[in-house]
Records
---
Amino acid sequence: MSFGARYVAALAERGHLCAGIDPHAGLIQAWGLDDTPAGLERFALTAVEGLAPHVPLIKPQSAFYERHGSRGVAVLERVIAESRAAGALVLLDVKRGDIGSTSQAYADAYLDPASPLAADAVTVSPYLGFGSLQPFVDTATKHDAGLFVLAFTSNKEGAEVQHATAAGGGTIGGLMLDHLRQLDAGAAPLGSFGAVIGATIGAVHDPDAGLDYDFNGPILAPGYGAQGGTPDDLARIFGPAARHVAASSSRGLLQAGPSTTALRDAALAAREELAALA
């Protein structure tokens, strides 16, 4: 099955919540653990146990594992494997963007099943030019994997690039959606090439302003929960495309730990809150 097909099936079965497993030092310590590779492992695998059986997507942020060196990357490999074993798709949050052979090497690392870091999809940055993502596109297509391309992110600094006017009119972020629309054209039940569009981007990107988010691809919406984004925001921003949205929450879920029961309950409550997006 293509990633797009797996994504649609996962949302239908498990709702619209993407659970981020981002081992911030402060969160690790709040769970009563040391900010060491051993503490990281306990934290991350407990989060997998509590969350992965109940959500459609698990999204580990690679940097929080890499900061612990090779032992941290080994934990990330286990997070990917055990999340998938629990039935969740894994979206590896790496936000890579480069050119030529380097881009291909990143694609092989994260999308080729022969790699221990291979995930169902990865986040990528198109701001070296959308064409720089071609190795990712080709590799994802070859291995039935997916991409989530940064379009309109929730950080305030992103506006100076993403909201800027493109040469042909419209915004740079909107141009990224146009590229995705071409990649996903004709795919059923959904394309495999998605966008990252923040749940807190505000009315400037309201559908009434002329942006069409229904590009026949998945949408990752960070900013839900602890960052202030609500289900009403998601419905307002995305309109009919809300059915393709996975709302991402990390701290809002992880602060329920270290109890796996509390983590499960937090995930199920968020799933219920997001049910109207279906």
---
Amino acid sequence: MASSYSFKYFNVRFPEHHPYVAHVEINRAEKMNAFFEAMWLELRQVFNQLSEDSSVRAIVLSGAGEKAFTAGLDVKAASQGGALADGQSTVDPARKAVHLRRHVLEFQDCITSVERCEKPVIVAMHGFALGLAIDLSTAADVRLCSKDVRFAVKEVDIGLAADIGTLSRLPKVVGSSSWVKEVALSARIFGADEALRVGFVSAVYENRTETISAALKLATLIASKSPVAVQGTKEILNWSRDHSVQDGLRYTGVWNSAALQTADVSAALLSGLQKRTPTFEKL
């Protein structure tokens, strides 16, 4: 299976003793895992493929090297040929805006592939986790970090309003509008303790290794559950976050009118009664 996951900027592994778990590692440690266009396009390929892989039930996302989960956007690369390049041209501003909008929407969709993925995604962050790291992690389902992590919504420091997901998702991840606006407007660094206090992360671990280990353990626990139930739970939670309670209840009813017909329900109930670990078919 691993041979079908050959990517340039991401390592995709299937760790022994962690059945049905995929470990995705951002693989540009020499540049602190900073992203440029080829990377975010590849990110979408990775998560689209994992989403449809019946041998995968949960995913861990981490960064290679000891320095950073990701330092965010590779500003140097972007300024030399991407949307941030100095556009001293005679192109009509409206026409230039159309092309720029397409570029931003494509970038947004690549990050949204993490959220859109049918499988739960647990992100394990360490070191520098700046800018794009916040976009990525808020698109994930569970966030864990190490004590040495350094977070920042960094975009205002390069003259931008964050446009790849942070400003839309972070207020829904963290309950304090005041805190979200503070960190987004100031681009200040905040650490693991503060991230835990405001609810941005679920737990803090000693170092990168322990954080990834905890993420794999949690992913393995999730992967042991019915994939019908897990995928439905992620779908309904994400839908309900963006809709009213009544809309969420109605969508749950429609979704479960199909999902409740699964054999996984009886398998889980019987296993509970018989005090044995249930096994579930691939989905």
---
Amino acid sequence: MSIFGAIKHAIFGDKGPLGGQFSGHKNTAQTTSGHAQTTGAAPTQPAPAQSQAPAQAQAPAQAVDVEQVLTGIAQQKGNPNLNWRSSIVDLMKLLDIDSSLDNRKELATELGYSGAKDGSAEMNIWLHKAVMRELEKNGGTVPAGLKD
């Protein structure tokens, strides 16, 4: 799996925005802001198998609130002292992904970074913003402050 694929999987889960399951983070994400988020998950009372499949196939995609999911993960981990809102290294650490320079170089290559892949602040800032933009392209809702 690519580095970006691992980041996306850690946030969206196996099924992504269409499935409504966020790798065990669904409940945390729903309660972070104090109100339920529509995730497209099945109701608590299961519907008969015949009617459930067509409804899922026709259900519109639900955007994943990336900031809310990441905040929920941080809360679940006891709010570690990580600046995931602006640091690619801390974002990767929050998601339990190896944040080594080699992995960040690979991520830079995946996302099309054209500068020196030396772990500079410039590269790391670009990576964080590029990851947030890519998450948005893949069905996430990302506040402007995390992309710009």
